[in-house]
Backbone:
């Protein structure tokens, strides 16, 4: 059995949480604030003096089926001793018995340790406010969705991401055209001049993120980009306190293809943008080679909001750093069709009347 | 008759311009194909950057002067 880490308040002994507003660890009971480093050192010293081994065994319960527990781990809450059964990838959670924030020791150690983390800047209230703003002012959103809608769950989650950086060495060839036209008494002339534009060179990319979690939909993660990487800090488990966290279950080797696709597309767009002064430009050939590629493992802050309406689940995600919120909403199909027909019919009838009047006035 | 059809066609285009953006604002989840947010500033350097003229072609079409003179 593994033990789940908790960070105790040096003043009152309660469990500390990372406060996104103050960017420090804060005690929810005595409101005392501490630096992340101070708390980490204090708790490490505290743990060293803990000599008791509270693990024990009993023979109650049946045997697990083969493979049934391969993706599960059992942790023991240091506050109440309650057993927390979590997936192998879970890195931080809450004890279901005493609701204290816990960090699963070992999930983020050794090779699994993230290089960097962007701490949460926005709290749960900001996520609620962003959601309210997001669903307001959308005329084709069913009114009953807004009226009956209640957020089932809001959770702050650190999502594992791979950050790729590389220098793209590109060679591109474009066919470009310039057109000029004029007329004389009998003919219209169009002169087309053809050019070949060659662009060879380099462009560098850094921190291109790729979702490292199977549970987190890739499109949801990419929709809340970009994250401001300048605010990333060295990873410390104390930042996870009070949030959920998963370790990666998609490797960097499996993720690199997605980064390659995005880098190639942006390289081609950047090079094509330098072919200027023509009426039309077509790419004839393109070759992009990546050099000096490197990957980093990081945790990005995301607020996940879930709601259910008409037996359908709707998931929204908010960038925990910038506040950008995304999520697909249902459409009021009847209202959209009514609006479409109303505008078409209204303008059609009005235009027809004007045409008739014009026709009569001009005596046609 | 042509005027009526034209009016309804204009109405259809305006309805598309008004309604489609309202529908698209309900769908904000999509894959991001570009990595332009992650380009290193001023990192683009060309080793070869040239535009070469290839050829010119002139096409001439007779003007419809007969139609013009009738109006």
Residues:
């Amino acid at each position: 059995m593994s033990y789940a880490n908790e960070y105790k308040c040096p003043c009152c002994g309660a469990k500390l949480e990372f406060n996104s507003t103050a960017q420090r660890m804060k005690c929810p009971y005595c409101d005392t604030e501490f630096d992340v480093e101070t708390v980490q050192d204090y708790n490490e010293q505290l743990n060293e003096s803990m000599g008791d081994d509270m693990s024990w065994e009993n023979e109650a319960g049946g045997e697990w089926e083969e493979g049934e527990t391969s993706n599960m781990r059992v942790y023991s809450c240091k506050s109440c001793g309650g057993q927390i059964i979590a997936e192998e990838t879970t890195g931080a959670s809450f004890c279901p018995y005493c609701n204290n924030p816990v960090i699963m020791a070992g999930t983020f150690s050794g090779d699994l340790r993230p290089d960097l983390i962007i701490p949460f800047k926005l709290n749960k209230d900001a996520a609620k406010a962003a959601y309210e703003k997001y669903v307001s002012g959308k005329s084709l959103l069913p009114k009953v969705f807004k009226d009956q809608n209640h957020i089932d769950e809001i959770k702050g989650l650190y999502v594992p991401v791979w950050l790729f950086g590389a220098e793209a060495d590109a060679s591109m060839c474009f066919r470009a055209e310039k057109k000029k036209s004029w007329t004389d008494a009998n003919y219209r002339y169009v002169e087309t001049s053809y050019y070949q534009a060659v662009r060879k060179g380099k462009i560098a990319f850094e921190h291109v993120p790729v979702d490292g979690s199977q549970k987190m939909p890739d499109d949801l993660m990419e929709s809340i980009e970009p994250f401001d990487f300048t605010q990333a800090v060295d990873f410390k488990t104390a930042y996870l306190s009070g949030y959920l966290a998963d370790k990666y279950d998609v490797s960097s080797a499996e993720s690199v293809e997605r980064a390659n696709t995005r880098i190639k597309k942006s390289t081609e767009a950047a090079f094509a943008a330098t072919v200027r002064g023509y009426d039309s430009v077509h790419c004839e050939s393109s070759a992009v080679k990546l050099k000096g590629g490197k990957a980093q493992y990081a945790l990005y802050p995301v607020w996940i909001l879930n709601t259910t309406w008409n037996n359908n689940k709707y998931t929204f995600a908010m960038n925990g750093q910038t506040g950008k919120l995304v999520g697909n909403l249902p459409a009021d199909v009847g209202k959209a069709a009514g609006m479409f027909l109303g505008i078409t019919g209204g303008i059609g009838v009005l235009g027809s009347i004007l045409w008739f009047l014009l026709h009569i006035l001009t005596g046609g | 008759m042509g005027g009526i059809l034209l009016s309804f066609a204009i109405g259809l285009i305006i309805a598309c311009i008004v309604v489609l953006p309202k529908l698209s604002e309900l769908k904000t989840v999509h894959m991001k194909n570009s990595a332009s947010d992650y380009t290193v500033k001023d990192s683009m350097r060309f080793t070869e950057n040239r535009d070469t003229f290839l050829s010119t072609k002139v096409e001439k079409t007779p003007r419809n002067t007969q139609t013009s003179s009738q109006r």
Observations:
- The radius of gyration of chain A is 29 Å.
- The CA atoms of residues 115 and 158 of chain A lie 14 Å apart.
- Residues 333-361 of chain A form the longest helix (29 residues).
